[in-house]
Amino acid sequence: MAPVTGSTATATATARPTSTADGPKVARTADDVTVSVPASAGAPGYTLDVATDELALTTHRAGKTVLATASGDTGALRFTAADGTWQHATGVTGWTWKNGILTVTADSTLDGATVEARITPGADRYQLDWDVHGGGPKQLGLVYDLSSAGHWYGHGEAETPQGGPGVDQPWPLDTGEVDHETFGPASYNMIDPFWYTSKSTGLRVDTGNVMDVAINKGKNGLGAFTVESPDTYKATVFVESTPLAVYRDYIGIVGKPAKSDASYEEYAKPLWNSWAQFYTKVDQEKLLDYATDLHDNGLDGHTIQLDDKWESNYGNLTWDPKTFPDPKGLSQKIHGMGFDFGIWVTLWINLDSDNYQYAADHGYLLMDAGDTAKPCEVTWWNGQAGIVDLANPDAKAWYEGNLKTLMDTYDIDGLKFDTRFFDEKCAPREGHQATDYQQLGTQLADEFDLQGAGIRVHWNRTAHEAGFVTRQVDKGTGWDSLRASATQNLAISTIGYPFVESDMIGGSGGQPAPSKDVLVRWAQSASLMPLMYASTSPVGTFDTTTGQKVDYDQETVDLYRQAIETHEKLAPYIWDQVQSTLKTGDPIMRPLFFDFPQDEASYTVTDEWMLGPAVLAAPKLSTGATRSIHLPPGTWYDVNQGTVLRGPRTLKGYAAPLGVTPAFVDLKAKGAAKAVKALKRDDAPAASVLITPDAPATDSGTPFEVTTEVTNWGTRTLRNAKAALELPEGWSAEATGPATARSLRNGATLTTTWTVTPAADARWGSHDLTGTATYNGATKVSDTVQARVKAAPGSVQEPYLTTDTTSGNAQYAQSGDQFAIWAGGQDLSGWKDEKGVVYRDDVAGEQATVQARLVSQNSASPVGKAGIALANDLTAPEKGGYAVLVMTQSYGLEFMTDSDGDGKLDTWAGGGSTYHPAYLKLTRDGDTYTAYASKDGDTWSQVGTARVPSAVGTGDAGMVASAANANHPGENIEAVFSGFSVTS
User: Fold this and answer.
1) Which CA distances in Å does 517 have to 294, 620, 686, 697, 700?
2) Is residue 402 classed as helix, strand or coil in its secondary structure?
3) Spatial CB neighbours of 128, under 8 Å, sequence gap ≥ 6
4) Which of 590, 613, 585, 587 is nearest to 258 (CA)?
5) pLDDT tens string 385-422
6) Residue 289: which residues within 8 A CB-CB, separation 6 or more?
7) Are 476 and 166 in contact (CB under 8 A)?
8) Are 130 and 111 a contacting pair, CB within 8 Å?
9) Distances (CA, A) of 873 to 230, 822, 823
10) Closest to 588 measured CA to CA, from 596, 580, 599, 597
11) pLDDT tier at 15 (50, 70, 90 boundaries)?
12) Dihedral of the CA atoms 163, 164, 167, 168 (nearest 10)?
C-alpha cells in the first residue's frame, strides 16, 4: 500500500481512514491524527490521538481516556538543549502512515531543532520511538499527566523526599513524591524502567542509560521519565483491560524466572543474619551466643549468616584473627546446633587491603571512566575501594577461586553478596556495556547457595530469569519502615521479581533497636510473605546508637516464635505458589487489585496484600490493637475467628491485639484448603459452614436450591456433624441429600443440597437465610446469605394509578404496601423527563408530607434514579408544582424542582453516597418544598429546600423511576418501594 501523508496545512477534517484489513486505522481530523486499533482476542482495543496543534498523545479505551501526556509549557516530548534549558515539541508539521508505522514530525521551542516520533501500534500496546534533530540535545524525556491514568505503580525501590527507599515507599506512587535522579541499571536500588496504572495502561522505557524519574515531584501531578542521553528515546505503552494483563505483557518482554535460587527449606524457615544484631561490632563469641540463644528458645531457622566485619580488611577474604580466632571451630559449633553457616562477601576491595595491590597489578579491577589507564576508585560505606572486573575472565577466576578456597577450608555453606557489580564512575571492559555487569554478577552468584538472601540484580532479562530472592534495601527500625517494607515488596514483585522478602525483621538502618511491638508486628508481617529474613533477636539485642544491651520479654520471644511457626506451616502453600510463578511469572505477593481488578477500593489499600490466590494478609502495621480491613468480592474465611464473610466489605475496628495477625482465605480460590490448615488459630472453631450461592433469588412461593458445605478445618475428627437451615417465618426447606455425618475427618466436607420454598406472601426484597452446623454435641457455627424475593410485573390496586413518560414500556407491581417499577427513560432531569410513575391523584394539599422507603434499585446506568415526587399533576408536569427527590444508582441523592412552572426540573441539591434502604421524605408548605433522607427512618438529614411558585391547590404524589439510560441504550431500571404514605 502506498504511504499516506498529511500536514497541518493540507489535511481535511474528515480524511478517509487508512488501514489494512482488521488492523489499525489512521484518520485525520481537525485537531488530531488518530490511530484506532480494534479489539481482538485477549486485547480490548484502543485509540491514540496525536494532537497536531502541539504534539501530545492521548490514549483511549472504550471511549475513555486511560493515559495522556502533559500539555502546556511542560511539553509532552521534551529535551534539554546544549545550554541545559528544557525545550519541547510543538506543532505537528507532517505525518506519514507506512508499513504499519505512523511517523510524525513537529517543530520545537528551540530554533533549529525538530522532533520526529514513530508510533508502531500493536494489538495491546504501541511502540513510541522519537528523536530530536538539531539543537544538540543532552536528554530526552516523556511527561505524563498522572491523573489521566488513575493511580501509578511499579518502579521498584523509590527515592523520595520523605526518606525512601529506607523509610518510605508511596503506594500508589502518585500518593507521595518520587524524585529518583540516578535511576539506572547500575543502581543499588531494585528498580526497572516499568510503570503501570489503575486504568490498565503501562509504560516501559527501553534504555541502558541512567534516567531521572520524577513522579508527582513537588506535588505537581506529573510523571517525568527522562533518559540521560541524546539517543533515540524508546518506549512501549501497554493498553490492557487489567493491571495484571499489563504486568504479563511486560514479563513477556523481559522474561520470567526459569528457577528459584532458594530451596524449600529456605522458603519455610527464616535466615538469621548478624547485621542488625551487631552491625560491625561482631566477634566469634557474640555470634555463638546469638546462635545459642536462638536455638535454646526454639527460634527456628535454616542458617546463621555472618555479615560485615569478619575480614582482616575489606576484600582480603581472610579472617580477622583478633575477632575470629577459630573460624573452623565457629563453623562446627553452628552446624552442631542444626544451622547452616554463611558469610557476607563483596567484590569491592578497599585500597588499604592486601588484595587490592595484587588485583591492580594483575589488571583484575575495573578501570576509571575518565582515565582508563588507572583503576576506578569508588566510595562506599566502608571506605575507598576498587571493584573486581567480572568481564575479565582471569579476574573472575581469581576471585571465584578465593571464595571456594575460603568455603572449603571453613565449611561455609553459602554466601551473601553485597554492594554492586558495577559503578557509573568506572569504564566497562572493552566489548562490554554497563548493563552487562548485571548479567555477569548474576552468573557469578548463581554458582553459590545464597541462603535466601539472594542478590540485588535488576533491569535486564538475565536478572529476571535467574529467579533470585530479592532482599530490600536497609530499612529503619520504626513503624514507617515496617509499612514501607510491605509496599516496597509490592513494588518489587510487580516489576518482575516475585521471590521477595522484607529487609531484616525489625529493620537494619543503624537506628535505635526496634521496640517490642515493631519487632513482633514485623515478624508477623514477614510470616505472610514468601520468605522470612531475620536478624534482631527477640531474646535481646544491642542498640547500635548507644552500645547498650536491649532485652525483650518472654512474650516477645513467644510471639516471634509463633510467627515463625505460622510461616513454616504455610510453606507447602507458598511452595505451590513458587511452582506456579515459574510457569506464569505472576508475583506471589501482590496487590489486591491483581486478583480483583473490578474492586476500586483495592487500588489504594496500602497495608494488605494477596499471597497467592487464596491468602489475604492484613497484618497490623501501626500502633494500636484494632484496624480496618477491606475484603474484596469473594467468600472469605477469617482464620482468627473461624467465621465466613462475604466481600466486598470493610471490617472497621477489627480486633488485632499484639498476638493476632489478621488474615483471610478465599474459600473458592486454588490452595484454600492448604492455607486454612496452615493459618487457622487453634482456638478458632474447628468447622465452618458455607452457603452457596451467595445471593439466591426467586419469586414469592417459588422453590429454589441452596447448598451448605460443612468443612472440618481442625486436626481431629468431628463427631455427629449436622447441617441445618434457619428460615424466615412461613418458609420451608427440605434436604435432598444427607444433612448429617457421624464423623467428619480433617479436611472433609459434608455437602447438603436444600430445596427452599418462600412463603406465598413473602415480601419482596432480601431475607436472611442462615446455614448452621453443629458438631461434637454442642458446638455451633453459622453462615448467612441474603435470599432475594423478586417482584414480578403485574398491576397496582386502587387508589393507586400509573403514568409513563418513557417509550411506553414501563411496568408496575404491587403487593400490599410494596411497589415496584420497571422503566426505561433517557434521564429524569432538566433536559429529559422520562420516568415510570405510581401515584395517587389529588392527595397532597398545601401542607403535606410524602414519604416512602426505597428498598432497592438496579440499573446499568450509574445515574439511574428512583424516588418520590410531587406535582400539581404528575401526568402533566408542565402544569406546575413539580419536584422530585431521588437516589441515584451510584452518586447519592438528587433533589430537583421546577422553579418557573415550565415542567422542566431546573434546580438541584444533593450528592453523597448511595445507600439502601433509603427513607425519602418531601414536605410541602405552600409553595416551599423541603427534601429529607434517612438511613433508618428515625434520624433525618435535610437534602435541600426550594420555592416552587407554580404549586397551587391539591396535587399528586407518587413514586418514580428512570433508567437514565442515555449512555446505556435499551437498559431499564428496577426500583422497589415500601411504606408509601401521604399526610395532608
Assistant:
1) 19, 10, 30, 48, 55
2) helix
3) 57, 117, 118, 119, 142, 233, 234, 235, 236, 237
4) 585
5) 999 999 999 999 999 999 999 999 999 999 999 888 99
6) none
7) yes
8) no
9) 73, 21, 20
10) 580
11) very low
12) 110
Q: What is the gyration radius of the CA atoms in the chain, in angstroms? A: 34
Contacts of 938 (CB under 8 A, 6+ apart): none
Question: What are the beta bridge partners of residue 88?
Answer: 78
CA distance 156 to 453: 18
Torsion of CA 151, 191, 596, 47, to 10 degrees: 60
- Tell me the C-alpha to C-alpha distance, in Å, between residue 867 and each of 270, 800, 950: 59, 16, 21
Beta carbons of 47 and 37 less than 8 angstroms apart: yes
Omega of the bond prior to 230 within 30 degrees of 0, cis?
A: no
CA distance 894 to 510: 57
In the predicted model, is pLDDT for residue 19 greater than 70? no
State residue 378's pLDDT score: 94
Cβ–Cβ < 8 Å for 325, 312: no
CA 575, CA 118: separation in Å to the nearest integer?
Answer: 45
The pLDDT mean for the chain works out to: 95
| DSSP label of 523 | H
First to last CA, the chain: 77
DSSP for 21-54 reads TTS-EEEE-SSEEEEEE--BTTB--EEEEEETTT
642: CB partners within 8 A, 6+ apart: 680, 681, 684, 685, 686, 688, 713, 781
Q: DSSP string of 774-834?
A: EETTTEEEEEEEEEEEEP------TT-EEEE-SSS--EEEEETTEEEEEE--S-BSSS-B-
**Cα four-point dihedral sign 178, 492, 245, 210:** positive
Helices 672-679, 554-584: inter-axial angle, 10-degree rounding = 170
**Pair 557, 659: CB distance under 8 Å:** no
11-25, 147-161, 913-927: least confidently modelled range: 11-25
C-alpha cell of residue 746 = 480433617
- The residues with which 790 forms a beta bridge, in sequence order, are 699
Q: Which three cell numbers stand for residue 960?
A: 418514580
CA distance 531 to 271: 9
The band of 7, judged by pLDDT with boundaries at 50, 70 and 90, is low
Q: Is residue 371's pLDDT more than 90? A: yes
SS3 286: helix
In 460-584, where do the E strands start and end? 470-471, 500-501, 533-534, 540-542, 549-551
Convert the pLDDT of each residue in 841-900 to its tens digit. 999 999 999 999 999 999 999 999 999 999 999 999 999 999 999 999 999 999 999 999
d(CA 61, CA 237): 13
Look-up of cell digits 473490578: 598
DSSP 3-state of 244: helix
C-alpha cell of 391? 568481564
